[in-house]
Amino acid sequence: ETGVTQTPRHLVMGMTNKKSLKCEQHLGHNAMYWYKQSAKKPLELMFVYNFKEQTENNSVPSRFSPECPNSSHLFLHLHTLQPEDSALYLCASSHLQQNTEAFFGQGTRLTVV
Amino acid sequence: AQKITQTQPGMFVQEKEAVTLDCTYDTSDPSYGLFWYKQPSSGEMIFLIYQGSYDQQNATEGRYSLNFQKARKSANLVISASQLGDSAMYFCAMREVNTNAGKSTFGDGTTLTVKP
Protein backbone atom coordinates (compact mmCIF):
# COMPACT_ATOMS: atom_id res chain seq x y z
CA GLU A 1 0.00 0.00 0.00
CA THR A 2 1.69 3.18 -1.19
CA GLY A 3 -0.87 5.74 -0.07
CA VAL A 4 -2.13 6.31 -3.61
CA THR A 5 -5.37 4.54 -4.45
CA GLN A 6 -6.74 4.08 -7.94
CA THR A 7 -10.17 2.85 -8.87
CA PRO A 8 -11.26 0.84 -10.66
CA ARG A 9 -8.42 -1.67 -10.99
CA HIS A 10 -9.82 -3.06 -14.21
CA LEU A 11 -12.15 -1.47 -16.73
CA VAL A 12 -13.60 -2.71 -19.99
CA MET A 13 -15.46 -0.13 -22.02
CA GLY A 14 -16.94 0.25 -25.46
CA MET A 15 -15.83 2.96 -27.81
CA THR A 16 -19.02 4.95 -27.25
CA ASN A 17 -18.95 4.74 -23.45
CA LYS A 18 -18.02 7.45 -20.98
CA LYS A 19 -16.14 6.41 -17.88
CA SER A 20 -13.86 7.97 -15.30
CA LEU A 21 -10.74 6.81 -13.54
CA LYS A 22 -10.19 8.00 -10.01
CA CYS A 23 -7.02 8.59 -8.05
CA GLU A 24 -6.74 9.59 -4.41
CA GLN A 25 -3.75 10.33 -2.22
CA HIS A 26 -3.53 11.33 1.41
CA LEU A 27 0.21 11.78 1.59
CA GLY A 28 0.11 15.55 1.68
CA HIS A 29 1.58 15.74 -1.81
CA ASN A 30 0.92 18.75 -3.99
CA ALA A 31 1.65 17.30 -7.42
CA MET A 32 -0.29 14.55 -9.19
CA TYR A 33 0.31 12.83 -12.49
CA TRP A 34 -1.36 10.55 -15.01
CA TYR A 35 0.82 8.10 -16.92
CA LYS A 36 -0.09 5.71 -19.71
CA GLN A 37 1.75 2.42 -20.09
CA SER A 38 1.01 0.46 -23.23
CA ALA A 39 2.29 -3.04 -23.83
CA LYS A 40 5.95 -3.03 -24.80
CA LYS A 41 6.16 0.76 -24.71
CA PRO A 42 7.79 3.06 -22.20
CA LEU A 43 5.87 4.97 -19.58
CA GLU A 44 4.24 8.05 -21.12
CA LEU A 45 3.48 11.09 -19.00
CA MET A 46 0.03 12.40 -19.90
CA PHE A 47 -0.85 15.18 -17.47
CA VAL A 48 0.73 17.00 -14.55
CA TYR A 49 -1.11 18.92 -11.87
CA ASN A 50 0.73 21.13 -9.41
CA PHE A 51 -1.36 22.60 -6.59
CA LYS A 52 -4.52 21.60 -8.51
CA GLU A 53 -3.42 23.52 -11.61
CA GLN A 54 -2.69 21.65 -14.78
CA THR A 55 0.87 22.44 -15.75
CA GLU A 56 1.41 19.93 -18.49
CA ASN A 57 -0.55 18.21 -21.19
CA ASN A 58 1.70 16.08 -23.33
CA SER A 59 -0.28 16.30 -26.56
CA VAL A 60 -2.93 14.02 -25.17
CA PRO A 61 -6.05 13.61 -27.35
CA SER A 62 -9.13 15.44 -26.11
CA ARG A 63 -10.95 12.15 -25.55
CA PHE A 64 -8.93 12.09 -22.30
CA SER A 65 -10.03 14.84 -19.96
CA PRO A 66 -8.35 15.24 -16.56
CA GLU A 67 -9.86 16.90 -13.54
CA CYS A 68 -8.21 17.83 -10.26
CA PRO A 69 -10.77 19.22 -7.82
CA ASN A 70 -8.26 19.38 -4.96
CA SER A 71 -4.72 18.34 -4.25
CA SER A 72 -5.81 14.91 -3.01
CA HIS A 73 -7.97 13.80 -5.90
CA LEU A 74 -7.37 13.36 -9.59
CA PHE A 75 -9.73 12.05 -12.23
CA LEU A 76 -9.32 11.01 -15.83
CA HIS A 77 -12.55 11.22 -17.77
CA LEU A 78 -12.73 9.00 -20.81
CA HIS A 79 -15.05 9.26 -23.78
CA THR A 80 -15.15 7.85 -27.31
CA LEU A 81 -11.92 5.96 -26.81
CA GLN A 82 -10.18 3.87 -29.42
CA PRO A 83 -8.90 0.30 -29.07
CA GLU A 84 -5.32 1.62 -29.13
CA ASP A 85 -6.11 3.46 -25.89
CA SER A 86 -6.14 0.10 -24.11
CA ALA A 87 -3.31 0.30 -21.59
CA LEU A 88 -2.41 0.49 -17.93
CA TYR A 89 -3.12 3.96 -16.58
CA LEU A 90 -1.05 4.89 -13.58
CA CYS A 91 -1.58 7.77 -11.21
CA ALA A 92 1.27 9.14 -9.13
CA SER A 93 1.80 11.89 -6.61
CA SER A 94 4.82 13.66 -5.23
CA HIS A 95 5.89 16.63 -3.19
CA LEU A 96 6.85 19.34 -5.62
CA GLN A 97 9.35 21.12 -3.42
CA GLN A 98 11.11 18.00 -2.21
CA ASN A 99 13.34 15.88 -4.37
CA THR A 100 11.74 12.67 -3.21
CA GLU A 101 10.17 9.76 -4.99
CA ALA A 102 6.80 9.78 -6.62
CA PHE A 103 4.34 7.31 -5.19
CA PHE A 104 2.24 5.33 -7.61
CA GLY A 105 -1.17 3.80 -7.43
CA GLN A 106 -1.77 0.23 -8.50
CA GLY A 107 -3.05 1.32 -11.88
CA THR A 108 -6.21 0.82 -13.85
CA ARG A 109 -5.96 -1.74 -16.60
CA LEU A 110 -8.21 -0.40 -19.34
CA THR A 111 -9.48 -2.39 -22.27
CA VAL A 112 -11.40 -0.63 -25.03
CA VAL A 113 -13.54 -2.95 -27.12
CA ALA B 1 18.29 13.31 -26.26
CA GLN B 2 16.95 10.64 -23.96
CA LYS B 3 17.38 11.64 -20.36
CA ILE B 4 17.34 8.12 -18.91
CA THR B 5 18.86 5.18 -20.76
CA GLN B 6 18.45 1.58 -19.74
CA THR B 7 20.38 -0.49 -22.25
CA GLN B 8 19.25 -3.93 -21.09
CA PRO B 9 15.73 -4.78 -22.29
CA GLY B 10 15.94 -8.15 -20.55
CA MET B 11 18.19 -9.79 -17.98
CA PHE B 12 18.40 -13.26 -16.50
CA VAL B 13 19.92 -14.16 -13.16
CA GLN B 14 20.20 -17.36 -11.19
CA GLU B 15 18.43 -17.43 -7.86
CA LYS B 16 20.67 -16.31 -4.96
CA GLU B 17 23.12 -14.56 -7.28
CA ALA B 18 23.62 -10.81 -7.58
CA VAL B 19 22.58 -8.82 -10.64
CA THR B 20 23.29 -5.30 -11.85
CA LEU B 21 20.77 -3.33 -13.87
CA ASP B 22 22.27 -0.46 -15.81
CA CYS B 23 21.05 3.11 -15.93
CA THR B 24 22.67 6.22 -17.37
CA TYR B 25 21.20 9.67 -17.27
CA ASP B 26 21.65 13.06 -18.82
CA THR B 27 21.04 16.37 -17.10
CA SER B 28 22.61 19.78 -16.70
CA ASP B 29 20.69 20.47 -13.50
CA PRO B 30 23.09 20.21 -10.55
CA SER B 31 20.30 19.12 -8.25
CA TYR B 32 18.45 15.92 -9.09
CA GLY B 33 17.28 12.66 -7.65
CA LEU B 34 17.60 9.21 -9.10
CA PHE B 35 15.09 6.47 -8.35
CA TRP B 36 14.52 2.84 -9.10
CA TYR B 37 11.08 1.29 -9.27
CA LYS B 38 9.97 -2.32 -9.57
CA GLN B 39 6.88 -3.21 -11.55
CA PRO B 40 5.63 -6.78 -11.12
CA SER B 41 3.14 -8.28 -13.54
CA SER B 42 0.29 -6.91 -11.38
CA GLY B 43 1.18 -3.43 -12.70
CA GLU B 44 1.87 -1.42 -9.56
CA MET B 45 5.06 0.63 -9.48
CA ILE B 46 6.96 -0.03 -6.28
CA PHE B 47 9.60 2.44 -5.16
CA LEU B 48 12.87 0.71 -4.29
CA ILE B 49 15.68 3.16 -3.72
CA TYR B 50 16.67 6.82 -4.02
CA GLN B 51 19.98 8.60 -4.62
CA GLY B 52 20.33 12.36 -4.41
CA SER B 53 22.82 14.16 -6.62
CA TYR B 54 24.63 15.58 -3.59
CA ASP B 55 24.74 12.34 -1.64
CA GLN B 56 28.30 11.25 -0.95
CA GLN B 57 27.46 7.65 -0.14
CA ASN B 58 25.81 5.09 -2.38
CA ALA B 59 22.25 4.40 -1.30
CA THR B 60 21.36 1.00 0.11
CA GLU B 61 17.99 -0.50 1.06
CA GLY B 62 18.14 -4.08 2.19
CA ARG B 63 19.17 -6.21 -0.79
CA TYR B 64 19.11 -3.18 -3.10
CA SER B 65 22.05 -0.86 -3.56
CA LEU B 66 22.65 1.90 -6.04
CA ASN B 67 26.07 2.20 -7.63
CA PHE B 68 26.18 5.96 -8.18
CA GLN B 69 28.98 7.22 -10.42
CA LYS B 70 28.27 10.91 -10.83
CA ALA B 71 31.06 11.71 -13.27
CA ARG B 72 29.90 8.93 -15.56
CA LYS B 73 26.23 9.85 -14.97
CA SER B 74 25.36 6.31 -14.12
CA ALA B 75 23.10 4.93 -11.40
CA ASN B 76 23.12 1.17 -11.63
CA LEU B 77 20.89 -0.92 -9.39
CA VAL B 78 22.47 -3.91 -7.71
CA ILE B 79 20.22 -6.64 -6.35
CA SER B 80 22.02 -9.07 -4.11
CA ALA B 81 20.91 -12.65 -3.40
CA SER B 82 18.19 -12.64 -6.07
CA GLN B 83 14.87 -14.22 -5.22
CA LEU B 84 12.18 -15.59 -7.51
CA GLY B 85 9.95 -12.73 -6.40
CA ASP B 86 12.42 -10.26 -7.87
CA SER B 87 11.25 -11.21 -11.37
CA ALA B 88 9.68 -7.99 -12.65
CA MET B 89 10.24 -4.94 -14.79
CA TYR B 90 12.64 -2.38 -13.29
CA PHE B 91 12.58 1.30 -14.14
CA CYS B 92 15.21 3.92 -13.51
CA ALA B 93 13.88 7.46 -13.11
CA MET B 94 15.17 10.96 -12.49
CA ARG B 95 13.69 14.15 -11.05
CA GLU B 96 15.44 17.42 -11.79
CA VAL B 97 14.81 19.99 -9.08
CA ASN B 98 15.38 23.19 -11.06
CA THR B 99 14.33 22.11 -14.53
CA ASN B 100 11.62 19.97 -16.01
CA ALA B 101 9.16 21.22 -13.39
CA GLY B 102 10.12 18.48 -10.98
CA LYS B 103 8.65 15.75 -13.16
CA SER B 104 10.01 12.25 -13.13
CA THR B 105 11.58 11.00 -16.34
CA PHE B 106 11.61 7.25 -16.78
CA GLY B 107 13.79 4.88 -18.74
CA ASP B 108 12.33 2.18 -20.95
CA GLY B 109 12.79 -0.45 -18.28
CA THR B 110 14.61 -3.76 -17.88
CA THR B 111 12.75 -7.03 -17.49
CA LEU B 112 14.50 -9.19 -14.92
CA THR B 113 13.86 -12.92 -14.78
CA VAL B 114 15.18 -14.89 -11.84
CA LYS B 115 15.75 -18.55 -12.65
CA PRO B 116 15.44 -21.25 -9.96
Task: Characterize the structure shown.
- The complex is a heterodimer of chains A (113) and B (116).
- In chain A, the strands form two sheets. In chain A, strands 2, 4, 5, 6, 9, 10 and 11 form a seven-stranded mixed β-sheet that branches.
- Chain A is mainly beta.
- Chain A has strands spanning 4-7, 10-13, 18-25, 31-37, 44-50, 53-57, 64-70, 73-79, 87-94, 103-104, 108-112.
- In chain B, strands 2, 5, 6, 10, 11 and 12 form a six-stranded mixed β-sheet that branches. A four-stranded antiparallel β-sheet of chain B has the order 3-9-8-7, with no helix packed on it. In chain B, strands 1-4 form a two-stranded antiparallel sheet.
- Chain B is 0% helix and 51% strand.
- The radius of gyration of chain B is 14 Å and the shape is globular.
- Chain B has 116 residues and is mainly β.
- Chain B has strands at 4-5, 10-14, 19-21, 24-25, 32-39, 46-52, 60-61, 64-69, 74-79, 88-96, 104-106, 110-115.
- Chain B has no helices and twelve strands.
- At the A-B interface, β4, β5, β9 and β10 of A face β5, β6 and β10 of B.
Task: Write out key terms for the chains shown.
heterodimer, A: 113 residues, mainly beta, four-stranded antiparallel beta sheet, 11 strands, B: 116 residues, six-stranded mixed beta sheet, 0% helix, globular
Give helix % range of chain B.
Answer: under 10%
Report Rg of chain A: 13 Å
Question: How many E-type strands of chain B?
Answer: 12
Assembly category = heterodimer
Number of strands of chain A: 11
Unreliable residue stretches of chain B: none
Number of helices of chain B: 0
Distance between the termini of chain B: 38 Å
Average pLDDT rating of chain A: 90
Q: Spans of chain A of 5+ residues with little confidence (pLDDT < 50)?
A: none
The termini of chain A sit apart by 30 Å
| Beta-strand fraction estimate of chain B | over 45%
Please count the helical segments of chain A: 0
Q: Which sheet architecture does the biggest sheet of chain A show?
A: 7 strands, mixed
Strand content of chain A: over 45%
Task: Give the H and E element order of chain B.
Answer: EEEEEEEEEEEE
State the secondary-structure class of chain A.
mainly beta
* Portion of residues within helices of chain A: under 10%
Q: Which structural class is indicated by helix and strand composition of chain B? A: mainly beta
